[in-house]
Amino acid sequence: MSDGAPLLVMNNVGKTFSNGVTALDGVNLTIREGDFVSLLGPSGCGKSTALRLIAGLSMPTTGRLEWRKAVGDDCVGFVFQEPTLLPWASVFDNVWLPLRLRGVSRKEAAPVVGELLERVHLSGFENAVPRELSGGMKMRVSIARGLVTKPRVLLMDEPFAALDEITRFKLNNDLLELWQDERFTVVFVTHSVFESVFLSNRIVVMAARPGRVHDEIAIDAAYPRDDSFRTSPDYAALCRQASDVLVEAINSTRGAAA
Amino acid sequence: MTAVENPVVALDPEEARRLRNARLERIGRWLLPLIIMALAIFLWDRICVWNGIPQYILPRPGVVLKTLVNDAGLLFGSLLVTLKITFLGLALAVIGGVGLAVLFTQSKWVEMSFFPFAVVLQVTPIVAIFPLINIYVDNQTAKLLLCAWIVAFFPILSNTTLGLNSVDRNLLDLFRLNGATRWQELWHLRLPAAMPYFLGGLKIAGGLSLIGAVVAEFVAGASGQSSGLASRIIEAGYRLNAPRLFAALILISLTGIVIFLVLSLVSHLALRRWHESALKQER
């Protein structure tokens, strides 16, 4: 899975905010085409900042961020931690929004939006407004909106952190299924070891103060992964391995602070 | 057993009490103000009779009502004049308030430069400004309109500005990511997000516009050029025609109430699908 061509290379990237806080320092990271990369780390390790840099919502202070493929406007989809939907707009209108901003009419967008809503199991909810939906359903709308432009990379910032475990498992499964079918690249920010091991083929463990890459773990378990993977000994072993690395990363921070 | 056979769920005493209270509250919300109002009117009438108060000082409610009917032509004609000023003033306040608010959100610098002027205009009593307006503006309608506008536009401006600026930061990022233009951001994001705030401002501005129109008529009416409700009140005051004075007063109050109710309804209809303020509370 991780032998795709490099898509994005971050070369010694650092970000210091105007208030003097260094969120990221010397980050080297290569995202390959077709990757499902998780950025795992304690809060304050700059994983969300890294995601914003990749999205182009923020500029690096030092270093370079290079896209290796000629990628246009539509290369990035973003899913926020909150569903971040327009509360006054219907489900259809919310998913249509990115296309609408590009000048695609409702009629032209209808087949694409309809198909995506089917993929995230929301057919029949086109006319509902967000407040009529559950937390998990809102997140599904948010994912559909992130994918509606057929982006090359889907950036996800702790998208399932606020959901209950049962809903989260379901969404994890559905996200993997979508990813395997559509072959986009995912950069997934999370603070959950279990989630990152279940989803990704690579985990980038980050450490805090300043935010930096501590280590990388390859998760070699084969796809498709489903609920049986969740209960397998392989999964348990991988989780233990990832946990150990994460603890290392956290301790390294403590050492630096002392 | 009965709970199973009976389609109506048996309620425990606590829930039954809660249901009863809710029902009573629903009725009381309408009934209580009406009863108190009727009581007050009755008391008013009795006080007039018991103390033998002459009609030119405090007319009995019945006399006021009779005057309202007898002078209907005169009073409603005047009401129409006042209403015209009120609604034109409100319409201009909406255009001016929303327009300025949009301008303010396009640039922080514009907002910083001009917002203080709006505040100055708001805090200076309109009665104090009017003599100046009287000197500079010749047209009678334009004078009154300007007054109503000055009083009504500020709540719309300040509320709409607040609304346009309180957009979810992540949604703004989403629009940036998708290459939205300023116009798209305004139309698809900021304006709908500002709607609840704007409607709140509109509710206040509706009443203020009426007050502005009446106050302006008062000041202008002193020179005998106005024909609105305020000038009827002044005229009636000069002639010690208290019944007509009361009748005009009641008409103004009723107008204010109706304006408020209509704007509340508009607000409710516009927001009922999505905004917290318009939703029924669920337990």
UniProtKB/TrEMBL annotation, chain A:
Belongs to the ABC transporter superfamily. Coiled coil: none annotated. Residues 8-235 form the ABC transporter domain. PROSITE patterns: ABC_TRANSPORTER_1, ABC_TRANSPORTER_2. GO terms for molecular function: ATP binding; ATP hydrolysis activity. CDD domains: ABC_NrtD_SsuB_transporters. This is NitT/TauT family transport system ATP-binding protein. The keyword Transport applies. Keywords: ATP-binding, Nucleotide-binding, Transport. The keyword Zinc-finger does not apply. The lineage of its organism: Bacteria, Pseudomonadati, Pseudomonadota, Alphaproteobacteria, Hyphomicrobiales.
TrEMBL record, chain B:
The keyword Transmembrane helix applies. Residues 79-267 form the ABC transmembrane type-1 domain. The chain crosses the membrane at residues 30-53, 73-102, 114-137, 143-167, 197-220, 245-271. One of its GO terms (biological process) is transmembrane transport. It is a multi-pass membrane protein. Pfam families: BPD_transp_1. It is found in: Cell membrane. GO terms for cellular component: plasma membrane. Keywords: Cell membrane, Membrane, Transmembrane, Transmembrane helix, Transport. PROSITE patterns: ABC_TM1. Its main location: membrane. Belongs to the binding-protein-dependent transport system permease family. PANTHER family: ABC TRANSPORTER PERMEASE PROTEIN (PTHR30151:SF41), ALKANE SULFONATE ABC TRANSPORTER-RELATED, MEMBRANE SUBUNIT (PTHR30151). This is NitT/TauT family transport system permease protein. It comes from Neomesorhizobium albiziae.
